[in-house]
Amino acid sequence: MTDLSDLIMLLIDANGRTIQGRTVIQKQIYFYSQFYKKKIDFVSGYYGPYSRSVSRALAVLVEMRFVKEVIERLPAYGIQSEFDPHKYTYTVTEGGEKVLEQIKQKNLQMTQEVKEFVDMLNDTGAVRDVLTLSLGAKIWFIMDRIREKDQYGKEDVIDEANRLGWKVSEEQIKTAADFLLTLLRERKQS
């Protein structure tokens, strides 16, 4: 197994052995990679930063039956959309429990980092909030792209979001900024 597979297993474990949503996994790993300086490639996806490597590693864990994937079709509520809404829930399996214990024993530092990281997200109230995580990750991703500028404002963030195909309003930027500031304060305290 890879370090990325180990990270996914540890994240699911630290989230109470269950994570609801592929997007939540993607965003938690994105923020983890940013805070702990882990090299994981992310590109701009529909819901914010997206990593094909994370998706592949998760699919392998499901295929190996270390993680159980439950897919629930959600009602569309009469809205016409190109997306067929589903909710994905991931849980460590009985066989995965044994692998998880081995991961924890061989990688004490990552285990501690992931626990601290999820505790920090819990303290912000956004650990499982897909909208807040996605919006925060989008704004962080944008800020990382435009940080070379001497000065930038809301308009620069909105322009870059539009270039990436993301629609963000000033209100959403404020919401994301509040979340990110809370997250950074929590990080300082831990």
Considering the chains and any ligands shown, give keywords for the structure.
single chain; 190 residues; alpha+beta; three-stranded antiparallel beta sheet; two-stranded antiparallel ribbon; 8 helices; 5 strands; 61% helix
* Main sheet record: 3 strands, antiparallel
Helix-strand topology string: HEHEEHEEHHHHH
Separate helix tally:
8
Alpha-carbon Rg, integer: 17 Å
Uncertain residue ranges: none
**Spatial separation of the terminal alpha carbons:** 29 Å
Number of domains: 1
Question: What is the structural class?
Answer: alpha+beta
Number of strands: 5
Give the DSSP E fraction (strand runs of 2 or more residues). Answer: 5-15%
Q: Roughly what percent helix?
A: 55-70%
The outline comes out as globular
| Global mean pLDDT | 89
* Side-by-side strand order of the widest sheet: 1-5-4
Question: If you had to describe this structure to a student in words, what would you say it looks like?
Answer:
- The chain has 190 residues and is α+β, with helices and mostly antiparallel strands.
- The chain has one domain.
- The chain is 61% helix and 12% strand.
- The protein has helices at residues 3-14, 22-35, 52-63, 94-106, 108-124, 130-146, 154-163, 170-189; strands spanning 18-20, 43-45, 48-50, 67-73, 86-92.
- β2 and β3 (48-50) form a beta hairpin.
- The longest helix has 20 residues, at 170-189.
- The two termini are 29 Å apart.
